[in-house]
């Protein structure tokens, strides 16, 4: 009872079982009660692991994965049936795999050994020799200058690699000094015989492997020309010469022009070594060989000759072939009787010659003749059937295709959110009729496909039914011939501006005004619209008004008697018209007025601004507020609570916030002012932080619109309810 005090494990191991329906002892290695060994029982170690509590907790197949100990060893075998050798020394490698204590023995291949070599012992766990055959070899059984017995075969370990030495030292094993490895006496004797032998024939080695390995895939390319004097039209033929550095061979390919009348062949010259002085006639088979032989006896001894290799190549046919040193720009080479001029080369070829031969001059030789002028394609006149574009496409090829629209322009200029990409102008008739001169029209120009539509403004008691006046479509400019070969000109966006006179199908219109979006669009794209380009207008005005500058100053002074340096728009317009004599259009004068106009400063009503923004968000069902606030917080990398104005605007544009540009800029501007004004009623307390953005949340089925302001500071977002 005293021995069992504190003991918790009392289970019994199963030692008996059935094998082939026969009861027998199956658990010889199992412990007794509670895992304790039985009297006289020794538990065999299963793996080479560290003691409990030491080393890594990972299993051996993970901790020692792909780690192998390598030992150099040899085995001595008796050879009883041969007089040349009494014993044989066989060198081998012993590999011990740490992950599962398996052992593999491999004997390296020896040339002309005459015995089976390779794997001597396949990889597995090897038991110890008797009387301990119930145990297996572990790492503790291996050391330098020791012997191990594998299945009655004794192996002498002489040395190991550096990794094995380091590992054994870490395991606490004291390494023995390396032992010398004896040589096999029979192999040593054979080596002496081989070293003393002299070749009966002169040995000549032709080694091309080094050149192949160094220059495999390296090809020099030259552009050349062959002026064929025997051709019918005596025209030059362009060729491309490839020189393969791996084996000094050359192939030539002809560049066949389109519609040249020649058959397209794969190669002008197949790949082979190119002789310099060809053609020289045909040689008999066997005349040109890589090696030559010499009959040293002739026919003196029974008409039987004695042949050996002739390293002096007596009587051999020597041929000179083109090498890379023979090829350079401007050189004429002989290609089987055809004189070909090397005119140019590629960049790799230039770098090769620059590096190997130090050549720097690669001036190309002009060899390409100017192409003949292309005949101008003429088209028949328009027949009047269908559209002009459709009729023109039927003349482009044998298979008529429908006219292609500018899809890229359509995707860029199509309506996107609040960007309508539609220019709207207010127009009226140019007529003397008292009935028509008061009629007002809305001309809409669609930038996506250059189409125009006209709507008439409905006026009460005018007697004229308003609505659609002209169907949407492209409109030709007046004064063009109907049946002609050239395509007609259509009205473009640059033809429409305030003050312009246009004629749509016989109706003359005067554009008298434009909406704010149209004017802003033209000013933003001033490079496309010259009437909205301030720099172009000022340069034009300077050329006209510079000779009359004194008179202009006097008129300005008379218009501003109080010296406020500000005048009304109408006097300014009349002054420009009088001095330019009609050289400026109404739109150009309006652009100058907007550029120099005094912008009235007025306090923006924050409540009204929020109401308008909330209404737009609610109408467009914008609900992506969570992701918008997360992106704004993510861009604040320094967590300082400040984001640039342009970055905030870019983020809002990326989310396609359904707010007009002027409304978005007004909201961002007033939020910036609130962030810097410590006495603003919407500011909760004075802080050095700046307002990121105001999110106007519009809830469906709710009469109350709630706006939230997010202030990002070091301590985190603060929610303010307005």
Provide an overview of this structure.
- The protein is built from 16 helices and 25 strands.
- The longest helix is centred in the C-terminal third of the chain and has 16 residues, at 661-676.
- By secondary structure, it is α+β, with helices and mostly antiparallel strands.
- α13 (606-619) crosses α16.
- The two termini are 82 Å apart.
- The chain is flat, with a radius of gyration of 50 Å.
- The strands form 6 sheets. The protein has a 6-stranded antiparallel beta sheet, with helices on one face. The chain has a 6-stranded antiparallel beta sheet with strand order 12-11-10-9-16-15, with helices on one face.
- Its main location: cytoplasm.
- Residues 65-172, 216-357, 419-526 form the DM10 domain.
Write the layout of secondary structure elements.
Blueprint: E1 16-19, E2 22-25, H1 60-63, E3 68-78, E4 87-97, E5 102-107, E6 118-124, E7 147-150, E8 153-160, H2 162-170, H3 185-196, H4 209-215, E9 219-227, E10 236-244, E11 249-254, E12 269-272, E13 293-295, E14 307-309, E15 332-335, E16 338-345, H5 347-356, H6 388-393, H7 407-413, E17 422-429, E18 440-446, E19 451-456, E20 467-473, E21 501-504, E22 507-514, H8 516-524, H9 534-545, H10 549-559, H11 569-580, H12 586-596, H13 606-619, H14 625-635, H15 645-654, H16 661-676, E23 693-697, E24 706-713, E25 716-721
Antiparallel strand pairs: 1-2, 3-4, 3-8, 4-5, 5-6, 7-8, 9-10, 9-16, 10-11, 11-12, 13-14, 15-16, 17-18, 17-22, 18-19, 19-20, 21-22, 23-24, 24-25
Helix pairs in contact: 13-16
Main beta sheet: strand number and arrangement? 6 strands, antiparallel
Sheet-strand content, in percent, reads 15-25%
- Report low-confidence residues grouped into runs of 5 or more: 678-722
Order of strands, widest sheet: 6-5-4-3-8-7
Coarse shape? flat
What is the helical fraction, as a range of percent? 10-25%
What structural class results from the helix and strand content? Answer: alpha+beta
How many helices does DSSP assign?
Answer: 16
Radius of gyration: 50 Å
GO cellular component, one term: axoneme
Function: Microtubule inner protein (MIP) part of the dynein-decorated doublet microtubules (DMTs) in cilia axoneme, which is required for motile cilia beating.
Domain DM10: 65-172, 216-357, 419-526
Keywords: Cell projection, Cytoplasm, Cytoskeleton, Repeat
